[in-house]
Amino acid sequence: MANLNELRASRQDRFAAAEKMVLAAREAGKDLVGANLEQYQGHITEIKNLDGLIAKCEQVGATSNRTNPGSTFGSGSSPANESEWVDQRTGQPIAVLKPEQRMADLVATDHSEPLSLGKYFRGIVTGKWDGAQNELRAMSEGSLGGGGYLLPSPLSPQIIDRVRNASVMVKAGARTVQMETSTLGMARVAASGGDITPMWHTEAAAITPSDMTFEKITFTAQTLAALASFSVEIFEDVSNLDSVVIDAVSKVLAIELDRACLRGTGTAPQPKGLLNQAGVVTDSTTFGTNGSVIGAAAPTGAVAWDWLSKQISGLWSVNEFPNTAIYSARTAGELDLLRASTGAVLPPPGSVADLQRLFTNSIPNNLTQGTSTDCSEAYIGNFNEAMIGMRHGLVVEVSRYGNVGTTSMFSTLQIGLRVYLRADFQLARPGAFRVVTGIR
After folding, report:
1. What are phi and psi of 201, to 5 degrees?
2. Which conformational region is residue 364 in: left (phi greater than 0), alpha (psi within -120 to 50 degrees), or beta?
3. Are residues 412 and 373 in the same domain?
4. What is the Cα 129 distance to its own chain's centre?
5. Within this chain, do residues 124 and 37 fall inside the same structural domain, yes or no?
């Protein structure tokens, strides 16, 4: 994919070619006509297109650097400017956000003051726009008809950023890839045999080649929707409407987004989660045929923190370096209860202590392994190599007359709220992850 430097170099080449044609015509005392004129105009048109791409790359890149002057995807030394990735189909830069970066920062706004989501909802529901003139103007760009509203920029990214903040996957380090269309193709090193093999070279001897193998992965936006209802009194009376609405929406979307990223089947409309991605190692033997509790004296390798150490060393053995472990809330509680023979809290060994350890209710505790039906699982890996493709437009529809389930919004004096986002999940390096099952 073309990066910012390549775009600038291409512009310079076009400019030099156009300038050469003008100078040649001037020296010959002739005007540019016919095929020469068409070629010259083609150079000028391409220069204008490149100017637009360069400006957008610089804008998004500057935002990334202000938000987090860290490293690029898959690197620990370069400045954060992942917007240099360019979609070859459209020529537009692709923004790739680290967890601490905000999608709202990528959206330009003409408003001098930030828009308020609470004022926006209150105005739509009650028809009262006092003190919400900016929100009223923004509403005109978001009307869908039939009682529905598409949140205008930058309100839509506000909710998506809250979903990202609440997502355990994003906390673990997963990157967010902004999707401008329903599909987005990207390349990764092939899961099997893709890396280059170096060799020591004897003078004048032939170097044995090892081709770096790439494979294409495609983000296909799938739809995640939620319904909620609020009383009219909330919209009319409360002062903290922004946080009430955003928290309610972002929490449920984040939990399900985490579940899909971890355990999604890949059968539409679900994304294919980490568990089901090709190249991810699943360890179903450490905890035994029928699973085992963490605090038990057996099986070997599953006692206390041993099972986590085993997964870490397994990743080290293939030159991968995990940064996070994610497991269920029950597993987190069991680990907190580990005790040494003296009764003191049993601390994790160094390799495990270095991990960020997170828990989520998106991982169930009623999975079947052998004859046991109370098992869970854990995910260990370098989550910087996980990518969540996400459309930045969030659709929000508000209704006072429809039904939520069997409940009439009109007869119960409530407001129905329907929201949906579109996202998909992919791995840059599947070999950077392991899943262990059978945790009871």
Report:
1. -110, 125
2. beta
3. no
4. 35
5. no
Partners of residue 326 on adjacent β-strands: 358, 379
Strand, helix or coil for residue 81: coil
pTM score of the predicted model:
0.74
Amino acid identity for residue 327 in this structure: Y
- Find all residues with CB under 8 Å of 48, minimum gap 6, and list them: none
CATH number at residue 180: 3.30.2400.10
Span 296-316, mean pLDDT?
A: 88
For 131, counting Cβ atoms within 10 Å of its Cβ (0-12 exposed, 13-18 middle, 19+ buried), the class is exposed
For residues 427 and 429, what is the distance between their CA atoms, to the nearest angstrom?
5
List the beta bridge partners of residue 387: 175, 426
Q: Which tokens go with 14?
A: 């076009």
Q: Using CA atoms, how far apart are residues 266 and 217, in angstroms rounded to an integer? A: 13
Task: Report the sign of the C-alpha dihedral through residues 45, 47, 52, 53, in that order.
Answer: positive
Specify whether 177 is located in the same domain as 239. yes
Q: Are residues 45 and 185 in the same domain?
A: no
Backbone angles phi, psi at 108, to 5 degrees: -75, 150
Range of the domain at 370: 286-380
Q: Is 262 part of any domain?
A: yes
Q: Which two tokens stand for residue 165?
A: 């903040």
Statement to judge: residues 132 and 38 lie in one domain: no
For the chain, the straight-line distance linking the first and the last C-alpha, in angstroms and rounded, comes to 46
51 within domain boundaries: yes
Q: Are strands 367-369 and 372-381 parallel, antiparallel or unpaired?
A: antiparallel
Whether residue 347 is preceded by a cis peptide bond, meaning omega within 30 degrees of 0, is no
pLDDT band at 62 (very low <50, low <70, confident <90, very high): low
Among 75, 94, 121, residue at a domain's last position: 75
- Residue count of the chain, please give it: 440
In the DSSP assignment, the letter for residue 384 is G
Residue holding tokens 């987190």? 332
Instruction: Answer yes or no: are the C-beta atoms of 115 and 138 closer than 8 Å.
Output: yes
pLDDT at residue 67 in the model: 42
- Specify whether 165 is located in the same domain as 304: no
In a domain, 212, yes or no: yes
pLDDT computed for residue 149 by the predictor: 62
Report yes or no: 397 and 418 within 8 Å, Cβ to Cβ. Answer: yes
**Average pLDDT over all residues of the chain:** 81
Instruction: Calculate mean pLDDT across residues 88-114.
Output: 72
Output b/e per residue, 246-277; b: 16+ Cβ within 10 A: beebbebbbbbbbbbbbbbeeeeebbbbbbbb
What number of other Cβ atoms are within 10 A of residue 33's Cβ?
A: 10
